[in-house]
Design brief:
Rossmann fold; 38% helix; alpha/beta; 7-stranded mixed β-sheet; 262 residues
């Protein structure tokens, strides 16, 4: 993750708590696949040609769980993060692929080497853009586009401002000191449309594959219990993955696929 409106020392403390303290747990969680929506997109775009010639970059990579999935398939992966704590965990996770991963530590807006722009088949971030304010909020999407080679595409996920249970628990948590990730401002679909239309992509799509019923149980029940107990409560909500007419509008997360022209 990267700097936002918190001061630098506080921000580093946040990511230390999230990553270093949970390092052992984080590196044991190595899922091999993405969600159904992303897997379908990858199948369409990459298909049988395979990943051996694919170059990806994950900015604000955290523990590099997404890059791990691509490296496992044979891709050459690059990761970047402002947090040294996050990168320490990411390096452990990617160690099996030592000849196929590259690490950059620094600020997304100042420290990306010029030679990286225009060189990647896939640029991606998961839960990054919402941590910025002002002009940086839209600039992060432009940077995704600038990193792409002709014909490349971006995968970006951000939270939905219309997911009411998520917004309510975030607002309630902050005064209690229980919101652990600092500044977080979710997006509406209208804001995303406005930003993406000016980001340089030749085409883009905004998708919401979430299950709103599961989001209600996660943010309305599980998260409050986690906060009250000060630990993660094990509640299986996956059986509530039932489609409703509210999913697309009010589900928790948007996935954006943006394409660079050939």
């Amino acid at each position: 993750m990267y700097q936002n409106s918190m001061d630098e020392s506080d921000q580093k403390d946040v990511w230390y708590d999230l990553y270093i303290k949970d390092k052992e747990k984080a590196v044991k969680r190595n899922p091999k696949t993405f969600n159904e929506l992303i897997e379908k997109e990858l199948s369409t775009r990459i298909g049988m040609s395979g990943y051996s010639n694919i170059k990806t970059i994950e900015i604000g990579c955290g523990t590099a769980a997404a890059s791990y999935r691509f490296a496992l398939r044979g891709a050459d992966v690059t990761i970047m993060d402002y947090s040294e704590s996050a990168l320490a965990v990411a390096k452990v996770r990617l160690e099996p692929f030592k000849n196929r991963y590259h690490v950059h530590h620094g600020d997304l807006f100042k420290d990306i080497p010029d030679e990286l722009f225009g060189t990647f088949d896939i640029s991606m971030s998961f839960g990054l853009a919402e941590h910025f304010t002002g002009s940086q909020r839209s600039e992060v999407f432009k940077i995704h586009h600038r990193l792409l080679k002709p014909g490349g595409f971006s995968i970006i996920s951000v939270p939905n401002s219309r997911c009411i249970p998520y917004v309510l628990i975030m607002k309630a948590s902050k005064p209690l000191g229980a919101w652990r990730v600092g500044t977080e401002i979710p997006f509406s679909q209208e804001e995303l449309d406005s930003i993406l239309s000016k980001s340089g992509f030749s085409s883009y799509s905004i998708n919401n594959p979430s299950y709103f019923l599961m989001d209600c149980l996660n943010w309305g029940l599980k998260k409050p219990l986690d906060i009250i107990s000060k630990r993660k409560i094990n509640i299986n909500i996956s059986r509530f993955n039932k489609r409703t007419h509210l999913d697309e509008r009010m589900g928790f997360v948007f996935y954006i696929f943006g394409e660079n022209e050939q």
